[in-house]
Structures are given as C-alpha cells and as structure tokens.
C-alpha cells in the first residue's frame, strides 16, 4: 500500500453518480495528500433484514437479493479502483453489509480514518426529510473531519 505518513483517508461510494464524482474530485484535488496517505474506498451493501421483507420474501429470494447486492458492491469497488489507478493511487477497497450510515460510521472508527470524503446526492429538503441524508448523518456522527463533495 502506498503512503508512509500513516494518515488514513476514506471515500465512501454508492451507486449514485455523486459518490463517483466525489471520488474523482478527491483523487484530483487531494492527489498529493492521498499519495502520502492510505486510501480506503468503502461501500455498504444495504441490509435486507427489514421485517416486512422477511414476511413477504421466500428465503431463496432473499439470498438472491443479497448476492445481487454483493455483486453490485464488488462492481462499484472495481470501478473505483480503476479511477484511483488512473491517478497512480492504489486504494484498499472495503465493503460491508448494513445500513450505509451506520456502516460508514463503524468503518471510520474501526479503520482509524482521519478524513472521510463523501458525495452529496443533492436531494431537496422534502426527500431528505423522508429518506434521510447519509452525508448529513456522517457530518454529525463520524469522529473525524468529513468532506462533502457536491456535484455542481
């Protein structure tokens, strides 16, 4: 792994273009810093452990959904790795199952991350009220500086 300073930077990604924009922004604008750090690219596989899903889905269908989520996560991380490699950066890639907000917060603590970079989906106030905002949650609950990159 590149970087000798011991600093750890994590970029959290998902399937929305805003997260890949944040990754591109980070490797371009923080290039020197990232070259001298340990870069982790992280994605969460949403948990399908909601009671209404268990009540409606046969076990086999749940397993297929979980496998699809895992394949999606692996594909996202492969794309992220390619973006980083184009900029001469070799990231560590990590995926975990769970609610994205909690999974990111827990990964930041467990991996001793010093800077979290996360994209903004650009949802309006109404959508944020109903769906929540992962970036807003991270800004207020993660125990390191958080850089929210908004696509303009």
Automatic annotation (TrEMBL):
Pfam family, one: Usp
Alphabetized InterPro entries for the sequence: Rossmann-like_a/b/a_fold (IPR014729), Universal_stress_UspA (IPR006015), UspA (IPR006016)
Cited Gene3D superfamilies: HUPs (3.40.50.620)
Domain of life according to the entry: Eukaryota
Domain UspA: 7-150
Protein name: UspA domain-containing protein
Organism encoding this protein: Cinchona calisaya
